[in-house]
Amino acid sequence: MAVEAPIRFGILGCAEIARKLSRAINLAPNAELCAVASRSLDKAKAFAAANGFPSHAKIYGSYDALLDDPDIDAVYAPLPTSLHLYWAVLAAKKNKHLLLEKPVALNVSEFDAILDAVESSGVQLMDGTMWMHHARTPAMKDFLSDADRFGQLKTVHACFSFAADSDFLKNDIRVKPDLDGLGALGDAGWYCIRSILWAANFELPKTVIALPGAVLNDAGVILACGASLHWEDGKSATLHCSFLSNLTMDITATGTKGTLHVNDFIIPFQEKEAYFSTGTKTGFDELVTGWLPQPSKQVITTDLPQEARMVREFANLVRAIKNGSKPETKWPTISRKTQLVLDAVKASIDKGFKPVEVVY
């Protein structure tokens, strides 16, 4: 049986996160790192030399040149969010499958334009939310789906924060309104929103309310904020995202019978091993000095880091399209729902923390 050729990737831009994805493409067994483009040819050459590009990889001094390369099957786009609409649409029109960094757009209207281009060209779209592809994630989902161990979901609390230094807060693209105007909400809040929707089986909340106390910089970009989400059946969730607090990556999901805790859901403490804790029908001992039964630790090992697993899954979808299948719609749908809730949080902040209804 003939071995199928790997999916050939090009990278649009030399952002810091692209270093991680270059390694991931090299690690994925069905992908090949074939090209990189920057607006500076020297920068692209230096990036390729520093990040494990093979000697035959092509180096381009413009994004257009890479997109015009007929030997590239798919592109990874780690560009500033303000550039996603133009370059994602153009990539789709050039028939390049698209692994698009999060947040996918500045708002859902922009993302809908990207979706139109992707659907018209019949190419695959997936966003770069890496933790969704970790081997731990389906194991956690199995627990949340277990009616006997977890029961019915009642509430989710998600937090992603890190203490950015003064240089980041002054110069990083994520605090510049013309580059990544969503700030901490787009960068860190995206992960929190995705985790909440994931726990809720991607059922959209009816109402979103931003919590008072959002911190904005002088340019109006969000540095820290929180929100509460509310469903018609009584479920609720909260999120907190920040560039101003110590590194935290927590999810707590509580059901009628059980609770799930994970403390490193975005980037595991270790690359090849991750854990989460579960408790079912927990209570106190007779003297109320301890818990019975105590929560248990579930350890998951993996042969590939989550970013390489993401590339492998994306490349499998691209290969399936090459073999006659249609693009997988699950991932674009999840992206759009995440963007919708993100938009609602931003709208609630802009409206003075008033409730905003989420309309699909």
Task: Summarize the structure in short.
The chain has 360 residues and is an alpha/beta fold. The protein has helices spanning 16-27, 41-50, 63-67, 84-93, 108-121, 136-144, 166-171, 183-199, 306-322, 330-350, and strands at residues 7-12, 31-37, 58-60, 74-77, 97-100, 125-127, 153-163, 207-210, 215-216, 222-230, 236-242, 244-255, 258-262, 273-280, 283-284, 291-292, 296-301, 356-357. Strand 4, helix 4 (84-93) and strand 5 (97-100) form a beta-alpha-beta unit.
Jot down its keywords.
360 residues, alpha/beta, Rossmann fold, Dihydrodipicolinate Reductase, domain 2, 10-stranded mixed β-sheet, 10 helices, nucleotide binding, Gfo/Idh/MocA-like oxidoreductase N-terminal domain-containing protein
Order of SSEs: EHEHEHEHEHEHEHHEEEEEEEEEEHHE
How many DSSP E strands? 18
Q: Assign the structural class, choosing from mainly alpha, mainly beta, alpha/beta, alpha+beta, or little secondary structure.
A: alpha/beta
Number of helices: 10
Q: Regions with pLDDT < 50 over 5+ consecutive residues?
A: none
Radius of gyration: 21 Å
Domain Gfo/Idh/MocA-like oxidoreductase N-terminal: 7-126
Domain GFO/IDH/MocA-like oxidoreductase: 146-260
Organism: Ficus carica (Common fig)
Protein name: Gfo/Idh/MocA-like oxidoreductase N-terminal domain-containing protein
